[in-house]
Amino acid sequence: MNKTIKIYIGLLVLLFVGAIIVEFSTPPPVNWTKTYNENQKIPYGTYILHNELETLFPTSKVHDIKVTPYEYFDDYYSWEDSTYLTAGNFIQINEFSPTDDVSAQELLDFASFGNSIFMSTSYPPRTFFDSLGFQTDNDYSFKGAANLSFANPRLKQDSISIQKGMSNIYFSELDTVYTTVLGYQKFDSLQQRVNFIKVNWGKGNIFLHLQPVVFTNYHLLKKNNKKYAAAALSYLPDDTIYFDSKNKFGKDLGSSPLRFILSQPPLRYAWYLALLSIFLFMIFNAKRKQRVVKVIKPLENTTVAFTKTIGNLYYETKDHDNLVNKKITYFLEHIRRVYYLDTQVLDKKFVKSLVLKSGKDESETQKLINLIAHLKAKPSCNEDDLLNLNKAIEDFYTK
């Protein structure tokens, strides 16, 4: 591992340590999301309400419904007797009611057999609008705090004033034959609006409330606001409570295998940091670990080419004598340089010494030396003489 890689690893380690220190030293931000989740203690969760249901209904059991209302109550419906095998109060607290049309009809059927439905939501199921004969409207011009009160004079002391997280959705039309107004809301100079009603449905009742934020942790802990929530729920009989849970089985959490990691801020930051680190490592490691070795072409040996060029020049000019003399000169120089023999006298003693040192055939060597001596003495050489001499010298080199 070279020095550069060690530096990169050190920087990444420092980055991780720094991120961990910052994460643990920074207080977690307040989550103001309106989840209405009974397991969450964030401002707009319903943890306090859910835990206090047994106090508000001391003789009742509380059951969390973690499936749709249709799936839950349909299992308790007896087709033989055309009745439900269970009874009680269904409670749902949510900004947007997640109840589908089939479940909404199931709740209406459940209420018609003498049970109660309490739903606090700004946007009730569409099926309820048609079946219960009401309409809602939204006045976006509201400002300031909302005064929430009850129609029953005996609950006058339970009125409260809240501001944060409110909307001005109210009941604009009601079926007065079956509907009883239970509560109002009023923003500053705006007129008083109906926000809490009871609808007689069969043998039971359906309670609709349009300000679910009053049941959240934040508002239940503010001042004495819990009295309003207790008064609103006091309309329900002291019977079994079926609480519509936000943590339903089979809830769509997304198809990503990383959905849990991405849902938790610390894990999400760690995941993004890991991806960034890998990306940086890939960028820096893409460089070669050593510099490119430059390929240097070896110097071309031009001696052979030069010799061939000069040889062709002499051959083309028919200067055979000059070529013969040069070949003899080069050959004798080779003998002196390789075998360390004196080439001034080319006699039998020279031939014998050359044969001993070179290991060549004596007769062939003698012929070569005789040819050299003959050509040196000859006044003029022709092309045949040059070819014979060249062949004899080449045979001496190769054999």
What does this structure look like?
The chain has 14 helices and 13 strands. It has 399 residues and is an alpha/beta fold. The chain has helices spanning 3-25, 47-56, 69-74, 101-112, 126-132, 217-220, 226-233, 259-263, 265-285, 303-316, 320-339, 348-358, 362-377, 383-398, and strands at 62-65, 77-78, 83-84, 89-93, 116-120, 135-138, 146-150, 160-162, 169-173, 179-187, 193-201, 204-209, 241-244. The strands form 3 sheets. It has a 9-stranded mixed β-sheet, sandwiched between helices. Strands 2-3 form a two-stranded antiparallel sheet. Strands 6-9 form a two-stranded antiparallel sheet. A hairpin with a 2-residue loop joins β11 and β12. The two termini are 57 Å apart. The chain crosses the membrane at residues 7-25, 269-286. InterPro entries: DUF4350. Residues 43-231 form the DUF4350 domain.
Short recap of the structure:
The protein has 399 residues and is α/β, with parallel strands linked by helices.
